[in-house]
Specification:
It is built from 16 helices and 17 strands. By secondary structure, it is an alpha+beta fold. 43% of the residues are buried.
């Protein structure tokens, strides 16, 4: 096969000066040879070329351009995965790794042809270490599976806000999805991991570098090294630097009691000031702010009747705050934190309540769902029109109102109803910064709606960037915006990519690389 045109080049170059039927014949022959070799490496049952399955992976829940893979590959163990990556280097076959069932940001779309590497079948929770409060798991493990296993050990997973049922825990952490608990140490929640590098070699980070887990005498919870901080290099890398086969990450004690508070306000700045104050005191566990639209989408049992009724009754913004009591003196812990929390609220002129009078179901809902995935047939963000185009970034909480005002103006320009825009503010690192997210609903079956939303998403993202938004998760057009703002940053990222992935086979086209 050495004289055969490389697969990656096939997708990019114009047709040769040959009769068209000859070109088609040569490509069909090459595809057959490529498939035969992949089946030899992985086994025929792990190489999928079914048109329906390929079409299903050509699009995701985002508005990004479709990209259809030629193969869906499902390696069953580490040895075969390494062999696959080494062969992909030989023939310059692009590989796009994925592990979640639903993709929402375009990062798992096949941009430059090649194969999708489906890791969702790797679902082992390999070890739960109560002493070090850690859990080692594979890419296909979902939040529901993880929490069920951890609860048996009186531990809990660190959850984002109502994740999808098929959301990969490993991918969520690699993509730095914000956690509901804003404590400083949870902003980087994993310790060590095993990576199949772009050339097919096995690499392990931190104290896991000493050897395979079955031979390693350390606890594998030291995250640093070898050499430098590999964990930070691979965070938000979107599969462009290798394929993660397991991750050792934080697990925390499961509260035996908890107490919820809802603090309502018509003014976001008032809640932001209150949130700053309680986070400086390191009070509570979960703490986040939702606007009435996002809260109504979660709480509505029937759409659209309950949604419209709730949206009229709910306050503009609600902070949800949870205090947890652990095994030792749980009641005493809740009591002193509650006293400090309520005293701080009085200083801000606020009155937190254990229930939300405008939505009595809210207390039971969050009591049950802070440690659960969304279990509805339709994901909560998609309930209004069928899909949601999200814009999210890092900023400081004191600037949130400025961004909200600017986003409302952008939606008016884009002829989108501002009262249907969901807002989610998640403090990070005890309020040092925050994740600010805008949810813009649209009908994915309406072409005009998709076109209008694509334009709105682009113009609003640029406006947010101009105001100082930090797009740390550079999906789609955000990659170009991020790269164009810092030539040195982009050149450094390109240099690292060239060193680790000289054939550019790992998810090419992402991050602008």
């Amino acid at each position: 096969m050495a004289d055969t045109v490389l697969a990656k080049v096939d997708y990019l170059k114009p047709l040769e000066d040959k009769p068209y039927d000859q070109v088609v014949s040569e490509r069909q022959q090459y595809f057959a040879l490529l498939k035969a070799r992949l089946e030899e490496i992985l086994g025929p049952e792990h190489v999928c070329t079914d048109p329906a399955a390929l079409d299903a992976l050509s699009r995701d829940k985002s508005l990004e351009e479709a990209g259809r893979p030629s193969f869906i590959l499902r390696p069953e163990n580490l040895e075969k995965l390494c062999a696959l990556v080494k062969y992909a280097n030989e023939v310059s076959l692009p590989l796009t790794p994925m592990s979640s069932g639903t993709h929402t940001c375009g990062n798992a779309l096949v941009s430059m042809g090649g194969a999708a590497v489906d890791m969702s079948g790797w679902q082992q929770i390999q070890k739960i270490d109560h002493r070090n409060r850690s859990v080692r798991l594979q890419p296909g493990v979902t939040y529901g599976q993880l929490q069920e296993a951890l609860a048996k050990e009186n531990l809990r997973a660190l959850f984002p806000l109502l994740p999808r049922k098929d959301q990969s825990v490993l991918t969520s952490n690699l993509e730095a999805q914000p956690k509901l608990i804003p404590e400083f140490n949870y902003s980087e929640p994993f310790y060590t991991m095993e990576i199949v590098m772009p050339l097919g070699d096995i690499f392990r980070t931190g104290t896991a570098a000493l050897g395979p887990p079955e031979l390693n005498q350390s606890d594998m919870v030291g995250p640093w090294g070898p050499g430098f901080d590999w964990n930070r290099l691979y965070t938000r890398s979107q599969g462009t630097l290798g394929i993660i086969t397991w991750m050792n990450m934080m697990a925390e004690p499961l509260p035996c009691r908890q107490k919820l508070f809802f603090t309502a306000s018509e003014n976001l700045e008032t809640l932001v000031d209150f949130t700053y104050r309680i986070q400086r005191k390191w009070l509570g566990y979960e703490c986040f702010i939702l606007n009435r639209t996002a809260l109504a989408l979660m709480l509505a049992q029937r759409m659209p009747e309950d949604y419209e009724r709730l949206k009229k009754r709910l306050p503009a913004y609600v902070q949800i705050f949870c205090i947890g009591g652990l095994r030792r003196l749980p009641d005493e812990r809740i009591a002193w934190q509650e006293a400090d929390f309520l005293e701080t609220a009085r200083e801000c002129g606020l009155a937190p309540q254990p229930t939300l009078s405008q939505a009595p179901r809210a207390a039971a809902f969050f009591e049950q769902n802070l440690l659960r995935c969304w279990d509805g047939e339709v994901y909560w963000k998609d309930r209004l029109k069928g899909a949601s185009s999200d814009i999210f970034f890092i900023t400081t909480m004191n600037r949130a109102s400025q961004f909200v005002d600017a986003m409302q103006k952008e939606t008016i320009k884009g002829s989108a109803p501002t009262n249907d825009m969901g807002i989610y503010l998640q403090p990070i690192e005890n309020g040092r910064v925050c994740h600010l997210e805008f949810m813009l609903p649209y009908d994915p079956a309406a072409r005009d709606d998709c076109t209008g939303m694509r334009k709105l998403h682009c113009s609003a993202s640029r406006r947010m960037k101009d105001l100082g938004a930090l797009f740390t998760r550079a999906y789609g057009p955000w990659a170009e915006m991020t790269a164009s703002s810092s030539a040195v940053q982009f050149q450094t990222a390109k240099m690292v990519k060239d060193v680790l992935d000289p054939k550019n086979i790992m998810n090419p086209g992402k991050l602008g690389l």
